[in-house]
Amino acid sequence: MSQLVTIKMMANTDRQVLAHFGSTGVPADADYKLKADDNKASKLHVLDVNTNMNFVGQQSGTKASEYYIGVRKGNVLEVYPVSMYRMKAVVESNERTQISSQASMTFKEQLEEMKEKFGSRRTQRQLASKRKYAIEFGEEDVEHIETQTKEVETSINEVKPKRNIDILPQQTRDAISVEEVYDMNEIIIENERFILKQYEEEMFAAIDNTFIKFLLSSSNNSDRKLMAIYIDLIITLVSLKVPDWKKSDPLPSLNSDVKDFLFERYITTVPMGPKKVKYSLINKEKDRLHIYGIILSFMLFNYKPIELETLQKAFKIQPKQLKKLVEIIGCYIESIKNISGINSKFAVLRVPLNEYKEAKETSFRRK
Which helix or strand (DSSP H or E) is residue 31 part of? Predict the structure, then answer.
């Protein structure tokens, strides 16, 4: 039975503080302190009393008044303005060595605990998968963790999972029209849209990519702007070189809120010791980003054919891999005249979708 509720805006009260902990979870017992740094910027400091883990959060958004919380009291919903702080775990080497429970732990055990405590969702899934298959490596192997990660992935993938399905967004193969095959909201998920909406105008105005400008029309609503922004972020990620990943911040020019969701969803973060973290974009996530970028490109281009050479240059992808990915998406590869009047290979997305067939493995037998 529905009830009538009166909404009461509590605008004249002191602003409340709202802390967002993401994949780390909210500490059960914590000490909260609001401080100003040297630049007079407000920061929220949180100490997890049970684990001695420190968190620091910066105020999120351009205006704190964009966030509110509601408290229901009978038939009245009191709405309070809040300041949102997105919390990040901070590892201090001196503090960690003083925790008695870790004194007898091996470096590998501490590494796994760090992943479990404040790693991204992907890192936590990798840890769970490693434990499930009982794959272990010793302390002396930690320096070669990147090589071992590849070996772990190889041993798990011997079961031959349907990898192509894993990296595709929800697909409607029996769609009547091409517009029904993929849903933008399966690629740009809810929390990402919420964050991007706050910076939509400034990020859209900052797009300087020739390929994206080619896809855009003269009339662009909010969804089209979000797609353009997301393609720009994808191109930025897949264009990073090895030296960029070795930096403490591979994406220094991005807003911290945007950077957070990119790292959480696509980037593998591996603690390599006190105050040292290794970032990487594994091949599976790179393929996923390429597929998302190509699908959004078709949406932005109103599902018109796109020249393979144009996609190759835009997404920095090898021709053989590009051919594979567009076929996984469901595209046909056809010879069409380009704007110069020369026959060229184009990716064409239409229904019924093309069915990708995995290339057979070639075995060589000694005669």
Answer: strand 30-36
| Cα–Cα dist 25/224, whole Å | 33
The more confidently predicted of residues 104 and 198 is 198
Q: Determine how many CB atoms are found less than 10 A away from the CB of residue 202.
A: 11
Residues 6+ apart with CB under 8 A from 278: 145, 146, 245, 269, 270, 271, 272
CA separation, residue 242 to residues 7, 36, 318 (Å): 53, 36, 17
**Of 138 and 126, the one with more pLDDT:** 126
Longest dimension (CA), the chain: 87
Q: How far is CA 228 from CA 167, 220, 313, in A?
A: 21, 10, 17
At residue 198, the 3 state secondary structure works out as: helix
Return the bridge partners of 79, or none.
9, 70
pLDDT confidence of residue 315: 92
Closest to 287 measured CA to CA, from 189, 156, 168:
168
Q: How many CB atoms lie within 10 A of CB 230?
A: 21
Tokens of 4: 């009538």
Residue ranges and CATH numbers for the domains of the chain are 1-90 (2.60.40), 163-240+281-302 (no CATH)
Q: Report CA-CA distances (Å) from 48 to 51, 110, 129, 277, 287.
A: 6, 17, 27, 21, 37
For range 331-358, the mean pLDDT: 88
If we measure between CA atoms, which residue out of 118, 136, 137, 115 comes closest to residue 126? 115
Residue 20, pLDDT > 80, answer no
For the cut 50, the answer to whether the pLDDT of residue 99 exceeds it is no
Q: What's the pTM value of the predicted model, to 2 decimals?
A: 0.57
Q: Residue 120 contacts by C-beta under 8 Å, 6 or more apart in sequence?
A: 23, 263, 264, 265, 267, 268, 269
CB 326, CB 308: distance < 8 Å:
yes
Q: How far is CA 71 from CA 76, 268, 282, in A?
A: 8, 38, 43
